[in-house]
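$ fold --in a.seq
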Amino acid sequence: MGDVVSIAGSDLAPFDGDRIERLALLRCTQGACRPIPFQIDERDARGQWALDHGPEPTADDPPGVLDGNDVLLFMAADAGDHAPRTDLPRWLPAAEISVHDPLDGATRWVYLVRYPEAAPRAAASYVHYDPSTDRVRGAHVSLGFGRGVPDYLALTDGAAAGANLLDRLKVRASATFLFGLIRFSRNEDDLTTQFAGWREGPIRVIRRQRQWVRLGWGIRSPTFGSYTYFYRDCAELPVGLSLNFPPHYFFGNIVIRIILDFRDLRGWSLVVPSLPAPLPIDDQMTAQKEALNRLAGSWFALVGPQLTLVQTMGLSTSLASVRRRFLYQEGLRAADPPETVPGAEPGVGYQLDQWDHVGAGAHQLSSVSCALPPEVDVRAFMAARGAPLQTAVHALP
C-alpha cells in the first residue's frame, strides 16, 4: 500500500470551513494514536491550485480554510489499525477514513481530528523542493528542470544525489504548412516557458508553468499550462492544451516525438508490455530493439541495479485517434541537437502521429514516472494501477 490517498474536500463535510492548522491526521496502533504526514491543497474559486510561492502566488478565499474543492492527501502506508472512539482524543470532532486494497483485501484506517487550537503535526516530509535549482527530491530520485523541461535525474541516497543520468527530455515536432509547401520542425529549445508558482507539502510538491512554441513567421502556438506533481515515489506531468480550431486546418503530417535521452544506462535493462523478457541495455542496437519502434504501447520500464524507473504516457479521449508508438535508440553517437551530451544511451519514449481527426477543444497528455525498489515486479505494479485503493469517510459521534 505505497499509494498516495486523495480525499476530496466535499467528502469531509463535517470539517467544511475549519482552519487547516487545527486539523490533524492520526494513525492508531495498539491503543496509541500519533500524527502522520498529510497535506491539504486548496483550490480557488476557478478550480486552480493555490500556490503560495513563486512569481505569481495565488490563494484560496478564504485562505487556510478547508472547503469542498480542496483535497486531503496522505500516504496509504501510513494508515494504521481500526481504533475505538475511546482511543482518540476525547470530545474532539473526528472522522474515520478507511483505505481498502482490492488486490490483497487489506483495510487500514486513519482519523481526521479537529483541535480547538493548533493541531499536532508529524515532523517527517516525503518530498523536498529547492527553488534555486528547480529540483525536487523524493525517496529514490531527484528530478530537475531547465527552461521548463526535465534535464536532471539522479538517484538519491538520503539527502545526497548521485550523478545526473538524464541529458534532457527531448520534445521534437515536425509538420507541413501551407498545403505541404513548407515543412518545418521545432524542438524543446523553441519552447518559451513562464514559471508561475509552486507549493511544497510533506506529501507532494506542485509546480506550475505556462508554455508556448515559437512556430516562426511571427506565429506561436496556443499557450498550454501544466502542473507538475512530485510525490515520494512518482512524478506526474499533465499538459493541457486548448485548441480553437482542428490542427489539420493549417498543418499536415504532424509528428511529435517525446524522448527521454539518457547519458549512460549500460548495465540496465528495458521492459515493455509486449515482450516477455527484458532487453539488456548494452550499447548494441539489435534487430529486436529496432523492432520496438514499430510497437504500440503506453508504458515502459528501465530496470537498474538500485531501482526501476517506470514511465507511462496517457492521452485524453479527445486524442483517441492519435497513434502512439514506442521510440527506442541506443549506441547512437551522432549528435541530435539541442543536447548536452551527443548521442543517446538509450533514448526511449513515444512518437505521436496521425493527428488528422483531432478536433478543436481541450486535450490532455499525461506522463507519470515512478521509481520503484528493485524487488517490485513491474508488471504487477502496472496491474495494481488498474485496481486503485478504495476509500470511505465516516464521521464519528
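$ fold --in b.seq
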Amino acid sequence: MVKVLVAENITPWPHSTYASISKQLPMLFLDKASKYRRWQDAQALLIGKLLLKRGLNEFGFQDFLLENIQYNAFNRPYINARELDFNISHAGQYVICALSKQHRVGVDIEQVHPVDLQDFATCFTGPELDRLSRSPEFLFDFFNIWTIKEAVIKADGRGLQIPLQQFEAGEQIKLGDNLWHTHTLKIADGYISHLATNNALSEPVVIQKVLIS
C-alpha cells in the first residue's frame, strides 16, 4: 500500500498554532524553518514533518524519533530500519507526503503556472521538446512530464545527479537496473502531481487529507 497525506498551507499560522506545533517537532526542524525568509517555505517544511510523523504513527512506527532521520550521499532522507520509505513535496498551497512499507517511493507536486520552455530546454529529451513545442495544452503537458521526472529521480535517491534529459517520462521508466512505475495523483485543481514506485501497484493509492492545527 502507498498512502499520500495532503495538507494545506494557505495562511500564516497564528501564534497559538505555531506554539502547539512547536511542541510536536524536534528543535532542529524549528531552527531550520526559522531561517527561511518566506513564511510559506517555513511552514511547508514543518507541515511536511508533521505529515511524516502522522504517517509513521499510522504505519506503526509510533516510537520513531524524527531527529533520527538519516540522509544518503545525495541528501535523500530515509529511516534507518528501511522498513518504510517516504518522500515529501510541496508547491503553492499544498504539502504532500508519500509513505509505503512495500515500495520505494518518490513524489512531486507542482502548481501550474506560466513557464518559458527555453528555460528548461536541457531538462527534456528531443521528442519531449518537440511534443511540448507543438502542444495545444502546453502547461498541462509540461508539468505532467516535469512531475513524472521529478518523482522518479526522488524515488531513485540521486536527485538532480540524474540528468533529466537522459530519460523520457512515461508510465514505466528504466534507470540503470531499476524499473520505475509512475502514477498520477489528483490533489487539487490547478496542481499536477505524480508518484513513482519501484514496483507496480496492486491497489489504488490512498490519498488522505490532514488538517494541521
